[in-house]
Amino acid sequence: MNTFERIYEVVRAIPKGKVASYGLVALLAGNPRWSRVVGYALHVNPEPIAIPCHRVVTKNGELSKAFAFGGDNMQRALLAEEGVEFLADGRVDMERFLWSGSEDIYK
Questions:
Q1: If phi over 0 gives left and psi between -120 and 50 gives alpha, with beta otherwise, what is residue 91?
Q2: How far apart are CA 7 and CA 84, in angstroms?
Q3: pTM for this predicted structure
Q4: Residue 36 maps to which CATH number?
Q5: Of 14, 51, 53, 84, which one is the catalytic site residue?
Q6: Domain range spanning residue 75?
Q7: Fewer CB near the last or first residue (10 Å), C or N of the chain?
Q8: Is 24 domain-assigned?
Q9: Vertex 84 angle, CA 93 and 72, to 5°
Q10: What counts of helices (H) and strands (E) characterise the chain?
Q11: Residues 10/29, Cβ–Cβ less than 8 Å
C-alpha cells in the first residue's frame, strides 16, 4: 500500500461527527512527519464521497483555507451537517469532536 493509500484508509475510518488533525492522520498512516503529505493527498482526493477529507482539520481545529472541494465554508457546512460544533472563533471544538483514532482501521 503506498503512502496516499494509507492516508486515505485512515481518513475513511474517521467516523461521521468526528474530526482528526493532519498530524493524527499522519501518525496513524505510519509516519508522524507526514502532516504536509496528508494535506497533499487530501488535495488530490480521488473519491471525495468515499474519502471524507472534510473531517481533517489542523491540530487547533482550524479549517483548511484550501479545502479542495469548495473552500473552508464548504468544509464547515459538511462538518456542521454531521453535528460537529464550532467555537466562537470558528474553530472546531477539538475537546468534543476529536477522533481518538483508537478504532482498528486495518481490520
A1: beta
A2: 22
A3: 0.90
A4: 1.10.10.10
A5: 53
A6: 3-89
A7: C
A8: yes
A9: 85
A10: 5, 2
A11: yes
Residue 101 lies in a domain: no
- pLDDT tens track, the chain, 107 positions: 899 999 999 999 999 999 999 999 999 999 999 999 999 999 999 998 899 999 999 999 999 877 566 666 889 999 999 999 999 999 999 999 999 887 655 54
Number of domains present in the structure of the chain: 1
C-alpha–C-alpha distance, residues 54 and 69, integer Å: 9
Q: What residue type is assigned to position 13 of the chain?
A: A
38: in domain: yes
Considering the domain boundaries, does residue 103 fall inside one? Answer: no
53 is a catalytic site residue: yes
Burial of 101 (0-12, 13-18, 19+ CB in 10 A): middle
Please tell me what DSSP assigns to residue 17: T
